[in-house]
Design a protein that fits this description.
Helix content: 40-55%
Largest sheet: 7 strands, mixed
Number of helices: 15
Order of helices and strands: HHEHHEHEHEHEHEHEHEHHHEHEEEH
Radius of gyration: 21 Å
Shape: globular
Strand content: 5-15%
Strand order of the largest sheet: 2-8-7-6-5-3-4
Distance between the termini: 56 Å
């Protein structure tokens, strides 16, 4: 059998760190261990019933069995615009300022292909979502990491970016509520971001995947709520987390019309949009009852409280997350991130995500997902307590 050489573009892709983690976990599962998996980012609750029913009915529509419009059904783009108006007070032109995506991840990888050339620079948060790196690599561009430090509330310090990188920077990724640190952005930070991007001709791409998940009565702020934001960037929203629709692969990019058009043009050559019945169900999610969203947010807040209080009770000094469905926990001083993750897996069969998988500045932390029951979270705390580390 011939072995064909892959393209240089594929060779540039970063190693998939979490594939290695999954391999470790699977070995323990296959050996019959009772694993508590807190390392994943996959919502554990089902999609709400009214959204499923919408899909079931729409799937019977014979007109939806044909190719959909290349750039998505007008009703879904209008739903995206209506959603932003209702939730954030942001006005969007559904034809020029909304692009339908095959999930948020697709848009986050595609936007680098749209805006970066070889040797251009993308400003990337560290720690951050690793798929930002993938799109930059595919575009043959370079990355300038922006450290997210606890002493700066896990917000980047724009004054620390080297002038040499800033001169070539064309794109910047941000993500609040943040994966993995669970930090949230302030209005003043977004105001500063718009000024910084405008002066330096940088397109901001705000990954708003966890936009519905804020705690303690605080609603996460959309980047597009900031005056001037549409002039300098876009926001990428996904239905995966807000509506437990991770497997449905529906999202949208909203904001600057030139960037939205670029994404649409690229996707014209990749896809013929989503199955229209899925688009109708997505519109129902955005426009129908939002009680399911508040119920889900309360579920995550309750789980957060159980986990963080339990860890405090056993002497682990950790910070309570302000948003997202993750907690970002400092590891004991004698461990590295990966060493501590391995220790938990080997000794008490708990899976956490090592912080160094999200970048150099993730070292010293592990990411824990709030994606299992309160009962399992309590059991995880008891297992950790048995190690007598704190």
């Amino acid at each position: 059998m011939k072995q064909f050489q892959t393209s240089d573009a594929l060779k540039r892709l970063p190693e998939q760190f979490f594939a290695k983690l999954a391999g470790k976990v699977n070995r323990y599962v296959e050996a019959g261990y009772d694993i508590i998996n807190l390392g994943q980012g996959n919502p554990d609750q089902p999609t709400p019933a009214h959204i499923i029913e919408s899909l079931q009915q729409a799937a019977e529509n014979p007109t939806y069995h044909k190719y959909p419009p290349f750039r998505g059904q007008p009703f879904l783009k209008q739903a995206g615009a209506d959603f932003y108006k209702r939730e954030f007070g942001v006005e969007l032109d559904p034809e020029k300022e909304v692009a339908v995506l095959f999930g948020g991840k697709a848009g986050l990888v595609e936007v680098s292909q749209c805006l970066l050339n070889k040797s251009d620079v993308a400003l990337v948060p560290d720690p951050g979502y690793p798929d930002y790196w993938s799109g930059v690599a595919m575009a043959e561009a370079d990355m300038q990491m922006m450290p997210l430090l606890e002493e700066n509330d896990f917000l980047p310090d724009y004054s620390a970016i080297p002038e040499s990188a800033l001169a070539k920077a064309k794109l910047m990724f941000l993500n609040y509520p943040n994966n993995p640190t669970a930090a949230v952005a302030t209005k003043s930070f977004f105001d500063e971001t718009v000024r910084f991007a405008d002066v330096n001709d940088i397109c901001v791409v705000h990954d708003f995947a966890y936009g519905a998940i804020g705690f303690d009565g605080e609603r996460p702020q959309s980047f597009l709520e900031t005056e001037g934001a549409k002039d300098v960037g876009i926001e990428i929203y996904t239905l995966s987390k807000t509506y437990n629709m991770a497997g449905w692969r529906v999202g949208f990019a909203v904001g600057n019309p030139s960037v939205v058009e670029s994404i649409n043009l690229l996707q014209d050559h990749f896809y013929v949009s989503l199955f229209s019945a899925v688009q109708e169900a997505a519109a129902e999610a955005l426009l129908g009852s939002q009680k399911c969203v508040e119920d889900l947010r309360q579920t995550y807040e309750s789980r957060r409280n159980v986990l963080i209080q339990g860890l405090h009770d056993i002497g682990w000094d950790v910070t309570s997350p302000a948003g997202s469905f993750f907690a970002w926990l400092k590891v004991p001083e004698s461990f590295t991130s990966e060493g501590f993750a391995d220790y938990l897996l080997e000794n008490v069969q708990i899976v956490v995500a090592p912080g160094n998988g999200f970048g150099e500045y993730g070292e010293g932390y592990v990411r824990v997902g709030l994606l299992t029951s309160e009962e399992k979270l309590r059991e995880a705390v008891e297992r950790i307590k048995s190690l007598h580390l704190f």
